[in-house]
């Protein structure tokens, strides 16, 4: 791993654990095993590092990674939609820092327009991605063609809600909730 990647990886954990305000570049440098000026070589400020981390996370959680349209066929559409969502839930659940960091991004989005814009862009890619996926399902004859936009927004809200509630430690049966939502959307 490059030094820049190590800095981002450490920042991921520390911003999740301590939040933006309480995480210092000194803490990050210490965890990486480099000097604070070395961090400045890669990132001119804590805000720039936080922004780079946001960009990396947004790239990693892109819709197509979890719901690849080309893999949805007439024979597997429902199982694929359910399975892709369950995989995403499993990945989120297995990373103790992910939901905490996403909450920190949300908090900082109330203070910084560029962070809000990045978060809104991710949400919009999910709405558009689900909308396209549902149109594909309608073309295959699996999804009823009415209210596809509302259904896409519903799926997006469920994905986001699951992420938020898992981050709070709420003990819901997220797999069952996702499967139920898919059933409702495909009716």
Automatic annotation (TrEMBL):
Gene3D superfamilies: Homeodomain-like (1.10.10.60), Tetracycline Repressor, domain 2 (1.10.357.10). Residues 1-61 form the HTH tetR-type domain. GO terms for biological process: negative regulation of DNA-templated transcription. The keyword 4Fe-4S does not apply. Residues 24-43 bind DNA. It holds the Pfam family TetR_N. Keywords: DNA-binding, Transcription, Transcription regulation. GO terms for molecular function: DNA-binding transcription factor activity; transcription cis-regulatory region binding. The keyword Cell inner membrane does not apply. InterPro entries: DNA-bd_HTH_TetR-type_CS, Homeodomain-like_sf, HTH-type_TetR-like_transc_reg, HTH_TetR, Tet_transcr_reg_TetR-rel_C_sf. This is TetR family transcriptional regulator.
């Amino acid at each position: 791993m490059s030094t820049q990647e190590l800095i981002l990886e450490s920042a991921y954990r520390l911003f999740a654990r301590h939040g933006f305000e309480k995480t210092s570049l000194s803490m990050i440098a210490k965890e990486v095993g480099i000097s604070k000026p070395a961090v400045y070589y890669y990132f001119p400020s804590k805000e720039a590092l936080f922004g780079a981390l946001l960009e990396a996370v947004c790239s990693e959680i892109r819709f197509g990674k979890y719901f690849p349209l080309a893999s949805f066929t007439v024979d597997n559409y429902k199982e694929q939609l359910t399975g892709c969502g369950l995989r995403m839930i499993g990945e989120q659940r297995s990373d103790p820092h992910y939901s905490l960091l996403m909450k920190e991004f949300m908090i900082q989005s109330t203070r910084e327009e560029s962070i809000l814009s990045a978060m809104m862009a991710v949400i919009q890619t999910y709405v558009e991605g689900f909308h396209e996926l549902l149109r594909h399902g309608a073309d295959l004859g699996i999804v009823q063609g009415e209210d596809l936009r509302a259904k896409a927004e519903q799926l997006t809200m469920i994905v986001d809600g699951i992420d938020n509630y898992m981050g709070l430690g709420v003990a819901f049966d997220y797999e069952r909730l996702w499967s139920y939502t898919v059933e409702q959307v495909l009716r």
